[in-house]
Design brief:
The chain has 79 residues and is α+β, with helices and mostly antiparallel strands. Helix content is 41%, strand content 24%. The chain is built from three helices and four strands, in the order βαβαββα. The protein has helices at residues 12-24, 37-47, 70-77, and strands spanning 2-7, 29-32, 54-58, 65-68. Strands 2-1-3-4 form a four-stranded mixed beta sheet, with helices on both faces. Strand 3 (54-58) and strand 4 form a beta hairpin. Helix 1 runs parallel beside helix 3 (70-77). The two termini are 13 Å apart.
C-alpha cells in the first residue's frame, strides 16, 4: 500500500493529519500544493476536487481511493 498526502502548509487540518502521521510513524509521500502547481492539478484530476488534506491510497490490484476530511484520514491512519 502506498500513501500520498496532498496538503497546504497553512491548513490547520493538514497540520493535524501530519502530526498524526509523524506520531504513528506512517510512511507517507507528501505533496504540497503551495510548492508545485502540478500537485494541485493531479489532485483535481484524480480526486475530483481541490480540497486538502486528501490522502491518496494506492493498492496493487485495486482502484485508487481519495480520502478527504482530516478526521476520516486520521481514523484510517490509526488502523
Amino acid at each position: 500500500m502506498k500513501l500520498t498526502l496532498f496538503h497546504m502548509g497553512h491548513c490547520p487540518y493538514c497540520k493535524r493529519v501530519i502530526k498524526t502521521i509523524q506520531s504513528n510513524k506512517v510512511a507517507v509521500t507528501y505533496k504540497d500544493l503551495d510548492v508545485h502547481e502540478k500537485f494541485r492539478k493531479e489532485l483535481i484530476s484524480g480526486g475530483g476536487k481541490q480540497q486538502v488534506p486528501c490522502l491518496l491510497i494506492t493498492e496493487k490490484g485495486k482502484s485508487d481511493q481519495w480520502l478527504y476530511e482530516s478526521l476520516d484520514i486520521i481514523e484510517f491512519l490509526k488502523k
